[in-house]
Recover the amino acids of this structure.
């Protein structure tokens, strides 16, 4: 009988020089809770396979993809192969805090081992609290679910590293929404999870060191081509009416999700609704025209 509660998943591709720290941080967890470490090697062409094979701890399980898949496809491989009820990702250029698993355990125990659950915490560096707490107006250690849950995800989503997901629940909705390009991680997936009734919680504890952070949402959002690509996949999963409802919901945000508006304008069906919002915001604050993203939005009409 499998009684594994947590899987630490380390998806990796050509990370021979940096993956040691992620593996060591996963091994050095201060907890008695049963967990496994699963490394999914995405058909690396450097010495990554040799590096990970040097680790012989019984907690470690290695999955070798026969061929390289996209970034989020590899995250879905992690979901499919993990044994834990909950999966927490640790990317090769990051490191988990020593108490990460224990803190996650306390949270899921407090919440009675929930399904449809996503948990993350503070990190050093690239912390998402600015978006979720300050912009969206939610609080630490608050369960957010239902109609307003997508609000916190409209600013770019999280990077899965350091984030815990109820594994089977995520698989049941198709896993992470894939992207052709390497970013912006789970921006669209988190919005979709919110639409499917997932519960979200940000703890005030620190769970992760983002050592490299080269693929953080804020970095990915700078490449609007990548965000556009992500939403083209998202459009296949949701209806225009559902997107209309999301746009209406977004008007509740004092700090508007500009990148979210920009990429939705790929579809002419949403031009009128977003144009109304932009005009209203510019009347209220004409200085918004100084922002590059606002000018980019206007150029799409």
């Amino acid at each position: 009988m499998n009684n594994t509660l947590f899987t630490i998943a380390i998806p990796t591709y050509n990370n021979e020089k940096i993956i040691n720290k992620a593996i060591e941080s996963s091994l050095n967890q201060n907890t008695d809770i049963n967990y496994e470490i699963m490394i999914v090697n995405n058909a690396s062409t450097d010495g990554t396979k040799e590096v990970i094979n040097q680790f012989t701890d019984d907690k470690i399980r290695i999955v070798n993809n026969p061929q390289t898949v996209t970034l989020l496809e590899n995250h879905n491989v992690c979901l499919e192969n993990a044994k834990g009820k909950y999966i927490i990702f640790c990317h090769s250029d990051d490191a988990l805090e020593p108490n990460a698993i224990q803190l996650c355990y306390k949270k899921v125990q407090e919440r009675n081992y929930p399904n449809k659950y996503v948990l993350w915490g503070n990190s050093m560096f690239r912390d998402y609290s600015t978006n979720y707490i300050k912009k969206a107006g939610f609080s630490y250690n608050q369960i957010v679910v239902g109609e307003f849950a997508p609000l916190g995800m409209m600013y770019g989503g999280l990077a899965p590293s350091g984030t815990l997901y109820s594994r089977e629940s995520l698989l049941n909705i198709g896993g992470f929404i894939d992207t052709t390009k390497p970013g912006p991680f789970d921006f669209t997936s988190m919005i979709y999870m919110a639409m499917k009734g997932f519960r979200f919680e940000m703890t005030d504890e620190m769970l992760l060191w983002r050592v490299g952070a080269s693929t953080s949402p804020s970095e990915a959002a700078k490449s609007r081509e990548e965000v556009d690509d992500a939403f083209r996949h998202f459009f296949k999963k949701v209806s225009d009416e559902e997107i209309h409802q999301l746009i209406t919901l977004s008007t509740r945000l004092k700090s508007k999700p500009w990148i979210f508006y920009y990429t939705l304008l790929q579809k002419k069906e949403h031009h009128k609704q977003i144009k109304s919002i932009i005009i209203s915001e510019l009347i209220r604050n004409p200085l918004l025209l100084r922002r590059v993203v606002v000018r980019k939005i206007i150029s799409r009409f």
